[in-house]
């Protein structure tokens, strides 16, 4: 079963912060646990980023670039059984979403960038602990860096072009 998190999460930034701390404490040799935690963080980061984009034209422009990287990262993670968390990545904010003030939007982006830095470091360490670097780790390492770069303005990419039909985990 896939659960849409956007209707259940009251504070995406607090959730993202908690997931970031959980990831920082994860043992990198437990690759599956690391990948599952990165999936949860990606869901939280996507939700926080959508709220930030709704609050500010500056973040909206960067979110358009981040969206394609988020999708590519989700594809990489979904290939490696991380979809087992059951959380769907929100394709958009629910219609009843309350607009955030600019300061909260800025804090959300800072939380996303912090998560990306932690995820990149833990994924890299997990890869170093494997006998052979696996694609399940190599792709996400680069994509977490690019996602942070999108939000800081250092990476501009192509707009997302979803496959038809979209994957079941992209709602």
Characterise this structure.
With 171 residues, this protein is an all-alpha fold. It is built from 5 helices and 2 strands, in the order βαααβαα. The chain has helices at 12-25, 31-55, 57-78, 102-129, 135-152; strands at 3-4, 87-88. It has a two-stranded parallel ribbon. The longest helix has 28 residues, at 102-129. The protein is globular, with a radius of gyration of 15 Å. The model has no long low-confidence stretch (mean pLDDT 86).
What's the end-to-end separation, in Å? 13 Å
Per DSSP, what share of the residues sits in E-state strands of 2 or more residues? under 5%
Total DSSP E strands: 2
- Derived from helix and strand composition plus strand pairing, the structural class reads mainly alpha
Tally of separate helices: 5
SSE pattern: EHHHEHH
Main pleated-sheet profile: 2 strands, parallel
The low-pLDDT segments are: none
Mean pLDDT across the residues is: 86
Describe the SSE topology.
Layout: E1 3-4, H1 12-25, H2 31-55, H3 57-78, E2 87-88, H4 102-129, H5 135-152
Parallel strand pairs: 1-2
Give a brief description:
With 171 residues, the protein is mainly α.
Quickly list its features:
single chain, 171 residues, mainly alpha, two-stranded parallel sheet, 5 helices, 63% helix, globular
């Amino acid at each position: 079963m896939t659960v849409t998190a956007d209707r259940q999460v009251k504070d995406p930034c607090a959730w993202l912060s908690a997931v970031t701390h959980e990831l920082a404490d994860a043992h990198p040799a437990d690759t599956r646990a690391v990948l599952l935690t990165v999936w949860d963080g990606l869901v939280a980061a996507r939700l926080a980023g959508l709220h930030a984009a709704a609050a500010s034209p500056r973040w909206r422009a960067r979110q358009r670039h981040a969206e394609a990287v988020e999708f590519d990262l989700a594809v990489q993670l979904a290939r490696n059984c991380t979809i087992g968390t059951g959380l769907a990545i929100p394709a958009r904010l629910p219609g009843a979403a309350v607009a955030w003030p600019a300061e909260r939007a800025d804090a959300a982006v800072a939380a996303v960038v912090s998560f990306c830095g932690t995820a990149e470091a833990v994924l890299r360490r997990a890869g170093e602990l494997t006998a052979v670097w696996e694609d399940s780790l190599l792709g996400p390492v680069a994509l977490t860096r690019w996602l942070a770069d999108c939000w800081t303005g250092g990476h501009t990419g192509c707009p997302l072009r979803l496959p038809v039909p979209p994957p079941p985990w992209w709602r």
